[in-house]
Protein backbone atom coordinates (compact mmCIF):
# COMPACT_ATOMS: atom_id res chain seq x y z
CA UNK A 1 0.00 0.00 0.00
CA UNK A 2 1.48 3.32 -1.04
CA UNK A 3 1.10 6.74 0.43
CA UNK A 4 -0.41 9.32 -1.90
CA UNK A 5 0.01 12.38 0.30
CA UNK A 6 2.04 13.06 3.38
CA UNK A 7 2.50 15.91 5.83
CA UNK A 8 5.52 15.82 8.10
CA UNK A 9 5.84 18.06 11.16
CA UNK A 10 3.88 20.86 9.54
CA UNK A 11 3.25 24.18 11.26
CA UNK A 12 0.94 26.62 9.57
CA UNK A 13 -0.69 29.90 10.52
CA UNK A 14 -2.56 32.68 8.79
CA UNK A 15 -0.31 35.55 9.76
CA UNK A 16 0.81 35.16 13.37
CA UNK A 17 -2.03 32.88 14.41
CA UNK A 18 -0.90 29.25 14.38
CA UNK A 19 -3.71 27.02 13.05
CA UNK A 20 -1.90 23.71 12.62
CA UNK A 21 0.93 22.66 14.89
CA UNK A 22 3.39 19.90 14.17
CA UNK A 23 0.91 17.97 12.03
CA UNK A 24 2.06 14.67 10.56
CA UNK A 25 -0.28 12.46 8.59
CA UNK A 26 -0.41 9.97 5.74
CA UNK A 27 -3.10 9.58 3.11
CA UNK A 28 -3.02 5.95 1.95
CA UNK A 29 -3.42 5.30 -1.78
CA UNK A 30 -6.73 4.08 -3.12
CA UNK A 31 -8.59 4.76 0.12
CA UNK A 32 -11.41 7.00 1.25
CA UNK A 33 -10.01 9.07 4.10
CA UNK A 34 -12.13 11.26 6.37
CA UNK A 35 -10.65 14.27 8.11
CA UNK A 36 -12.80 15.17 11.08
CA UNK A 37 -12.72 17.76 13.81
CA UNK A 38 -14.77 20.60 15.23
CA UNK A 39 -15.47 23.89 13.48
CA UNK A 40 -12.35 25.92 12.98
CA UNK A 41 -10.01 23.05 13.79
CA UNK A 42 -8.21 23.56 10.48
CA UNK A 43 -9.68 20.88 8.22
CA UNK A 44 -10.19 23.15 5.21
CA UNK A 45 -6.76 24.64 5.83
CA UNK A 46 -5.29 21.15 5.63
CA UNK A 47 -6.82 20.66 2.17
CA UNK A 48 -5.50 24.04 1.05
CA UNK A 49 -1.99 23.07 2.15
CA UNK A 50 -2.18 19.80 0.24
CA UNK A 51 -3.18 21.78 -2.89
CA UNK A 52 -0.16 24.02 -2.39
CA UNK A 53 -2.38 27.06 -1.94
CA UNK A 54 -0.37 28.45 0.99
CA UNK A 55 3.27 27.97 1.97
CA UNK A 56 3.77 26.21 5.31
CA UNK A 57 5.75 27.82 8.13
CA UNK A 58 7.62 24.60 8.81
CA UNK A 59 7.68 20.97 7.68
CA UNK A 60 7.15 18.97 4.48
CA UNK A 61 4.10 18.46 2.29
CA UNK A 62 4.33 15.84 -0.42
CA UNK A 63 1.34 15.04 -2.64
CA UNK A 64 1.26 12.71 -5.66
CA UNK A 65 5.04 12.55 -5.57
CA UNK A 66 5.31 16.34 -5.73
CA UNK A 67 7.12 18.26 -3.02
CA UNK A 68 4.42 20.90 -2.70
CA UNK A 69 6.53 23.24 -0.56
CA UNK A 70 9.35 23.44 -3.11
CA UNK A 71 7.16 23.43 -6.25
CA UNK A 72 7.26 26.37 -8.64
CA UNK A 73 4.12 27.82 -10.26
CA UNK A 74 4.39 25.63 -13.35
CA UNK A 75 4.80 22.45 -11.30
CA UNK A 76 1.85 23.42 -9.10
CA UNK A 77 -0.35 24.02 -12.14
CA UNK A 78 0.50 20.61 -13.63
CA UNK A 79 0.04 18.95 -10.24
CA UNK A 80 -3.37 20.54 -9.61
CA UNK A 81 -4.72 19.10 -12.84
CA UNK A 82 -4.32 15.69 -11.24
CA UNK A 83 -6.50 16.66 -8.29
CA UNK A 84 -10.28 17.01 -8.23
CA UNK A 85 -11.83 19.36 -5.70
CA UNK A 86 -15.38 19.59 -4.49
CA UNK A 87 -15.51 22.92 -2.71
CA UNK A 88 -17.61 23.62 0.35
CA UNK A 89 -21.26 23.78 -0.82
CA UNK A 90 -20.08 22.61 -4.26
CA UNK A 91 -20.97 25.91 -5.89
CA UNK A 92 -21.95 25.56 -9.54
CA UNK A 93 -21.72 28.30 -12.16
CA UNK A 94 -25.32 29.51 -12.12
CA UNK A 95 -25.25 30.87 -15.67
CA UNK A 96 -24.08 27.55 -17.13
CA UNK A 97 -26.19 24.45 -17.73
CA UNK A 98 -25.49 21.20 -15.87
CA UNK A 99 -23.71 19.96 -19.01
CA UNK A 100 -21.54 23.05 -19.34
CA UNK A 101 -20.65 22.98 -15.64
CA UNK A 102 -19.20 19.49 -16.01
CA UNK A 103 -17.60 20.36 -19.37
CA UNK A 104 -15.89 23.41 -17.84
CA UNK A 105 -12.69 21.73 -16.55
CA UNK A 106 -12.39 19.69 -19.75
CA UNK A 107 -12.61 22.80 -21.91
CA UNK A 108 -10.25 24.66 -19.60
CA UNK A 109 -7.56 22.00 -19.27
CA UNK A 110 -7.67 19.85 -22.41
CA UNK A 111 -7.70 20.34 -26.18
CA UNK A 112 -10.26 17.63 -26.73
CA UNK A 113 -12.72 18.10 -29.61
CA UNK A 114 -16.29 18.97 -28.62
CA UNK A 115 -17.54 15.48 -29.59
CA UNK A 116 -15.16 13.83 -27.10
CA UNK A 117 -16.07 16.37 -24.42
CA UNK A 118 -19.73 15.56 -24.97
CA UNK A 119 -19.12 11.83 -24.46
CA UNK A 120 -17.03 12.39 -21.34
CA UNK A 121 -19.53 14.79 -19.79
CA UNK A 122 -22.44 12.42 -20.41
CA UNK A 123 -20.45 9.52 -18.91
CA UNK A 124 -19.66 11.52 -15.77
CA UNK A 125 -23.26 12.68 -15.46
CA UNK A 126 -24.41 9.10 -15.95
CA UNK A 127 -22.09 8.00 -13.13
CA UNK A 128 -23.91 10.37 -10.74
CA UNK A 129 -27.35 9.48 -12.13
CA UNK A 130 -27.99 12.82 -13.82
CA UNK A 131 -27.42 12.26 -17.54
CA UNK A 132 -31.08 13.13 -18.06
CA UNK A 133 -30.61 16.52 -16.38
CA UNK A 134 -27.79 17.76 -18.61
CA UNK A 135 -29.79 20.59 -20.21
CA UNK A 136 -31.12 21.98 -16.93
CA UNK A 137 -29.70 25.00 -15.13
CA UNK A 138 -28.59 25.01 -11.45
CA UNK A 139 -31.70 27.01 -10.49
CA UNK A 140 -33.87 24.19 -11.86
CA UNK A 141 -32.42 21.34 -9.78
CA UNK A 142 -32.48 20.45 -6.07
CA UNK A 143 -29.61 20.96 -3.63
CA UNK A 144 -28.87 17.23 -3.62
CA UNK A 145 -28.73 17.15 -7.41
CA UNK A 146 -26.47 20.22 -7.46
CA UNK A 147 -24.07 18.42 -5.18
CA UNK A 148 -23.99 15.47 -7.56
CA UNK A 149 -23.32 17.76 -10.53
CA UNK A 150 -20.45 19.29 -8.55
CA UNK A 151 -19.20 15.75 -7.94
CA UNK A 152 -19.32 14.98 -11.68
CA UNK A 153 -17.41 18.21 -12.33
CA UNK A 154 -14.79 17.34 -9.70
CA UNK A 155 -14.07 14.01 -11.42
CA UNK A 156 -14.27 15.33 -15.00
CA UNK A 157 -10.52 15.04 -15.54
CA UNK A 158 -10.24 11.59 -13.93
CA UNK A 159 -8.25 12.86 -10.96
CA UNK A 160 -5.89 10.61 -9.01
CA UNK A 161 -6.78 12.39 -5.79
CA UNK A 162 -10.11 13.99 -4.90
CA UNK A 163 -10.66 16.49 -2.08
CA UNK A 164 -14.16 16.94 -0.74
CA UNK A 165 -14.77 19.90 1.58
CA UNK A 166 -17.90 19.24 3.64
CA UNK A 167 -19.70 17.38 0.85
CA UNK A 168 -22.70 16.60 3.08
CA UNK A 169 -23.37 20.13 4.36
CA UNK A 170 -26.99 21.15 4.04
CA UNK A 171 -28.22 17.89 2.48
CA UNK A 172 -31.33 16.00 3.52
CA UNK A 173 -30.71 12.45 4.81
CA UNK A 174 -31.50 10.76 1.48
CA UNK A 175 -29.27 13.06 -0.59
CA UNK A 176 -26.62 12.69 2.09
CA UNK A 177 -26.66 8.90 1.81
CA UNK A 178 -26.58 9.10 -2.00
CA UNK A 179 -23.65 11.52 -1.96
CA UNK A 180 -21.70 9.40 0.53
CA UNK A 181 -22.20 6.24 -1.52
CA UNK A 182 -21.17 8.08 -4.67
CA UNK A 183 -17.94 9.25 -3.05
CA UNK A 184 -17.13 5.63 -2.27
CA UNK A 185 -18.14 4.16 -5.64
CA UNK A 186 -16.53 6.93 -7.73
CA UNK A 187 -13.31 6.54 -5.75
CA UNK A 188 -13.18 2.83 -6.47
CA UNK A 189 -14.31 3.13 -10.11
CA UNK A 190 -11.63 5.74 -10.84
CA UNK A 191 -8.96 3.95 -8.80
CA UNK A 192 -8.50 7.30 -7.06
CA UNK A 193 -7.88 8.36 -3.46
CA UNK A 194 -10.44 10.55 -1.71
CA UNK A 195 -10.00 12.90 1.22
CA UNK A 196 -13.30 13.95 2.78
CA UNK A 197 -13.44 16.84 5.23
CA UNK A 198 -16.61 16.45 7.25
CA UNK A 199 -18.39 16.71 10.59
CA UNK A 200 -20.68 13.85 9.74
CA UNK A 201 -19.52 10.92 11.85
CA UNK A 202 -22.13 8.42 10.79
CA UNK A 203 -21.79 8.71 7.02
CA UNK A 204 -18.06 9.15 6.99
CA UNK A 205 -17.40 6.17 9.26
CA UNK A 206 -19.61 4.12 6.95
CA UNK A 207 -17.69 4.94 3.76
CA UNK A 208 -14.14 5.53 5.03
CA UNK A 209 -11.18 3.19 5.23
CA UNK A 210 -9.19 5.64 7.29
CA UNK A 211 -10.17 8.43 9.68
CA UNK A 212 -8.07 11.34 10.91
CA UNK A 213 -9.32 13.41 13.85
CA UNK A 214 -7.83 16.84 14.40
CA UNK A 215 -8.38 19.29 17.25
CA UNK A 216 -6.56 22.38 18.44
CA UNK A 217 -4.23 22.19 15.47
CA UNK A 218 -3.04 18.66 16.19
CA UNK A 219 -3.79 15.15 14.98
CA UNK A 220 -5.53 13.41 17.88
CA UNK A 221 -6.23 10.06 16.29
CA UNK A 222 -5.82 8.30 12.97
CA UNK A 223 -6.63 4.80 11.86
CA UNK A 224 -9.54 2.66 10.69
CA UNK A 225 -13.02 3.74 11.83
CA UNK A 226 -12.95 0.90 14.39
CA UNK A 227 -9.55 1.98 15.71
CA UNK A 228 -10.67 5.59 16.07
CA UNK A 229 -13.88 4.51 17.76
CA UNK A 230 -11.83 2.55 20.28
CA UNK A 231 -9.53 5.51 20.95
CA UNK A 232 -10.00 6.53 24.59
CA UNK A 233 -8.80 10.12 24.23
CA UNK A 234 -11.57 12.18 25.91
CA UNK A 235 -11.83 14.63 23.01
CA UNK A 236 -12.09 11.83 20.44
CA UNK A 237 -14.79 10.17 22.53
CA UNK A 238 -16.71 13.44 22.96
CA UNK A 239 -16.47 14.17 19.26
CA UNK A 240 -17.52 10.79 17.91
CA UNK A 241 -20.31 10.40 20.44
CA UNK A 242 -21.49 14.01 20.10
CA UNK A 243 -21.46 14.51 23.89
CA UNK A 244 -22.43 17.97 25.16
CA UNK A 245 -19.76 17.90 27.89
CA UNK A 246 -16.14 16.80 27.77
CA UNK A 247 -12.87 18.54 27.01
CA UNK A 248 -14.90 20.92 24.83
CA UNK A 249 -17.04 22.78 27.37
CA UNK A 250 -20.61 23.91 26.86
CA UNK A 251 -19.94 26.99 29.03
CA UNK A 252 -17.56 29.66 27.86
CA UNK A 253 -15.14 30.22 30.78
CA UNK A 254 -16.80 32.45 33.41
CA UNK A 255 -16.59 33.39 37.07
CA UNK A 256 -18.60 31.38 39.62
CA UNK A 257 -22.33 31.69 39.09
CA UNK A 258 -22.77 32.74 42.76
CA UNK A 259 -20.46 35.71 42.21
CA UNK A 260 -22.59 37.08 39.39
CA UNK A 261 -25.76 36.75 41.42
CA UNK A 262 -24.39 37.74 44.84
N1 LIG B 1 -7.84 32.93 4.74
C1 LIG B 1 -7.83 32.99 6.06
N2 LIG B 1 -7.24 34.00 6.73
C2 LIG B 1 -7.21 34.06 8.08
N3 LIG B 1 -7.74 33.10 8.87
C3 LIG B 1 -8.34 32.07 8.29
C4 LIG B 1 -8.43 31.94 6.86
N4 LIG B 1 -9.09 30.79 6.56
C5 LIG B 1 -9.40 30.24 7.76
N5 LIG B 1 -8.96 30.97 8.78
C6 LIG B 1 -9.08 30.64 10.23
O1 LIG B 1 -8.36 29.44 10.45
C7 LIG B 1 -9.06 28.55 11.34
C8 LIG B 1 -9.26 27.20 10.69
O2 LIG B 1 -10.13 27.35 9.60
P1 LIG B 1 -10.59 26.13 8.67
O3 LIG B 1 -11.54 26.70 7.67
O4 LIG B 1 -9.41 25.42 8.17
O5 LIG B 1 -11.34 25.23 9.72
P2 LIG B 1 -12.33 24.03 9.49
O6 LIG B 1 -11.91 22.97 10.44
O7 LIG B 1 -12.40 23.69 8.05
O8 LIG B 1 -13.70 24.67 9.99
P3 LIG B 1 -15.21 24.46 9.50
O9 LIG B 1 -15.55 23.05 9.83
O10 LIG B 1 -15.96 25.45 10.34
O11 LIG B 1 -15.22 24.78 8.04
C9 LIG B 1 -10.34 29.28 11.70
O12 LIG B 1 -10.18 29.88 12.95
C10 LIG B 1 -10.50 30.33 10.62
O13 LIG B 1 -11.15 31.45 11.14
TrEMBL record:
It comes from the Bacteria. Residues 5-241 form the ABC transporter domain. The keyword Signal does not apply. SMART domains: AAA. Keywords: ATP-binding, Cell inner membrane, Cell membrane, Membrane, Nucleotide-binding, Transport. It holds the Pfam family ABC_tran. The keyword Transport applies. GO terms for molecular function: ATP binding; ATP hydrolysis activity. InterPro entries: AAA+_ATPase (IPR003593), ABC_transporter-like_ATP-bd (IPR003439), ABC_transporter-like_CS (IPR017871), P-loop_NTPase (IPR027417). CDD domains: ABC_Org_Solvent_Resistant (cd03261). PANTHER family: INTERMEMBRANE PHOSPHOLIPID TRANSPORT SYSTEM ATP-BINDING PROTEIN MLAF (PTHR43023:SF6), PROTEIN TRIGALACTOSYLDIACYLGLYCEROL 3, CHLOROPLASTIC (PTHR43023). This is ABC transporter ATP-binding protein. The lineage of its organism: Bacteria, Pseudomonadati, Pseudomonadota, Betaproteobacteria, Burkholderiales.
